[in-house]
Amino acid sequence: MNESFHLGEIRGVRVGINWSLLPIFLLIALSLAGTLLPSAAPGYTTSAYWVFALVTAAAFYASLLAHELAHALVARRRGVRVKGIVLWIFGGVAKLEGDSPDPRAELEIVGAGPLTSLGLAAVGGLAAVVLGAVGTSALLVSSLAWLAGINALLALFNMLPAFPLDGGRILRALLWRHWHDRIRATAVAARVGKVCGIGLIAVGALEFLAGGALGGIWLAVIGWFITVAAGQQHQQVAHRSREGDLRVADAMTGAPLVVPTEATVDEVIERYVRPNRFSSFPVVDIHRRLVGLVTVTRMASLPRDRWHTTPVGAAAARPTEIVQCGPNDNLAQVAVRMQGSPDRRAVVVEGARIVGILTPSDVRRAINHAELFGQPPGARGPSPVQGEPNATPGGMSWGPVPEA
User: Fold this and answer.
1) With a threshold of 0.70, does the pTM exceed it?
2) What total of structural domains would you count in the chain?
């Protein structure tokens, strides 16, 4: 899920929201102001209900952020890079680059979220009891009680063994520890997730028929999301098993063309897009640092009358959006990282040089060749997940990066 609005950083973790969050935020506030709070604390003005409803809805999403931040901080402590957190229609997601190093790390990373939600539920519930006992505003007590209940529900729901929910990931970690085989464990957890998702759809349909229209529809939608996500994960597992021990070097397109950031879009199109088959170009600055990645799609989306005045750097993906990897990195792990990037490409860096570009078609071609002809002679076992280095590309010239 991509970020629509950037909110800032918390302890070095990028935080953003997707536009899909906004209608759900308003729906929660409407439900609180129109029904839940007036029923729990009658006698207040409409404006008071709306003020507390908006603050409570915001506090709920702050709770979701705390849940995901717990995942992210523990992941970073266990050596897994964190791309950021995005809040969206189904809650939130912590974008992690690469897999957990072992089952124990997986359990720690996944368990941190539900434990945080349970902790918030306990604090909110205790605050509601204490403030209610001393005669504090019933509206405030009701808001705290609702937050406590929704956080407890969030923790319990996430513990369902429905991959990719936290409970499904815990199931995968336990199976991984038992079988010592992460791919097999993921496949089983994904199948269980699909079954749970179908079950939620069925329960949602029954609730809808019984008169719970909104709740039934929402439950069915969540079940559909889980079913689709689990199915995609199952396909990824099959995909990875075919990838075997392939490295990035076995799939990448070498000697990419690099362009300086001050070159115009028109110059890049005329000098390098039209005469060549390449569709992706790393963009470098005067100090030979990677500052962007531009694709033919990005350039073609600009109005033609601006091609001759727009620097190519203005049309390029930002450095934080670019997947960087080494030629010896495991192809399966890099392919997963590429799926979460805007352009679904990776820049391959070795030392201070850009040595290749990796695209989805490169990955598919390498897999097909491996299936037809066996693993290439240079293929070897998976390397540890590597972070994104501070690359300093070694070519400012308009053409293939020179060998050092």
Assistant:
1) no
2) 3
